[in-house]
């Protein structure tokens, strides 16, 4: 089994990756999987100091010195994000892949801006920074950017409106940037992965039930946990391996990832005719 995985994801081998929101949940799963697939180095950003430091120690003990680096960073603060990128490039002298995974789902309506800042604005900023470093037209080596969206970006509904809106924005932005990068010859792929509900802290029942207090319906029952973190991570690796720039992938219900690009383009064509 191990030999099969190494062969399948040779695109990861000997590459330097940066993962946002990498201290726990899907992000931590991505960090573990990239190193297991022989990535040269994986840097990961998060505000969770204790969890991030613990994961770094775990990865160093398992895979060896310098393979993993935790950087405490609030990605919504652009100065901190820029400093984190500089630290990665200064330390490893290159960057081959970025997975923009960080996201929050806040309960207090007064903090909705935090969702916009982290889920969308920081994804845009991180994508631009990654492109600037990896752009072959600017001396970079090319690479891959994976932006994590959600199935909520593809479904109309009244629950979690701000969160859904941020993930819809990520989808639209990533498709556009992927098309641009393909045309410009910078050798950087920009790919979107829409995850179905996944067993992480952001969707634990206690968190969702807080939304129910001010909701006309039951959010917890409408956002059931349906897939394991490992399934989400495997799907993201599949997108890294097989995805074309500008493509959109879906990973849900513990099933293999699949390319949804053609159906999405058909839907957009229908909408554009109105």
Automatic annotation (TrEMBL):
The keyword Oxidoreductase applies. It comes from the Eukaryota. This is 15-hydroxyprostaglandin dehydrogenase [NAD(+)]-like. Pfam families: adh_short. Coiled coil: none annotated. Belongs to the short-chain dehydrogenases/reductases (SDR) family. Keywords: Oxidoreductase. GO terms for cellular component: cytoplasm. One of its GO terms (molecular function) is oxidoreductase activity, acting on the CH-OH group of donors, NAD or NADP as acceptor. The keyword 4Fe-4S does not apply. SUPFAM superfamilies: NAD(P)-binding Rossmann-fold domains. PROSITE patterns: ADH_SHORT.
């Amino acid at each position: 089994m191990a030999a099969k995985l190494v062969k399948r994801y040779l695109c990861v081998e000997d590459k330097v990756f940066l993962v946002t929101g990498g201290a726990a949940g899907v992000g931590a799963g991505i960090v573990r999987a990239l190193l297991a697939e022989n990535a040269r180095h994986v840097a990961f950003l998060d505000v969770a100091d204790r969890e991030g430091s613990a994961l770094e120690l775990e990865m160093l003990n398992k895979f060896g010195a310098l393979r993993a680096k935790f950087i405490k960073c609030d990605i919504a603060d652009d100065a901190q994000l820029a400093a984190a990128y500089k630290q990665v490039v200064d330390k490893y002298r290159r960057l081959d892949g970025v997975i923009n995974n960080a996201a929050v789902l806040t309960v207090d309506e007064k903090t909705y801006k935090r969702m916009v800042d982290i889920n969308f604005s920081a994804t845009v900023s991180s994508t631009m920074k990654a492109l600037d470093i990896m752009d072959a037209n600017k001396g970079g080596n090319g690479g891959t950017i994976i932006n994590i969206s959600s199935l909520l970006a593809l479904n109309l509904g009244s629950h979690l409106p701000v969160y859904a809106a941020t993930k819809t924005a990520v989808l639209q932005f990533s498709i556009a940037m992927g098309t641009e990068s393909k045309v410009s010859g910078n050798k950087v792929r920009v790919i979107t992965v829409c995850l179905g509900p996944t067993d992480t802290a952001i969707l634990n029942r206690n968190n969702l039930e807080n939304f129910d207090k001010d909701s006309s319906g039951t959010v917890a029952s409408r956002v059931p946990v349906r897939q394991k973190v490992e399934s989400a991570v495997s799907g993201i690796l599949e997108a890294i391996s097989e995805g074309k720039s500008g493509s959109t992938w879906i990973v849900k219900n513990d099933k293999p990832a699949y390319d949804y690009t053609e159906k999405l383009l058909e839907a957009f064509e229908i909408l554009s005719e109105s």
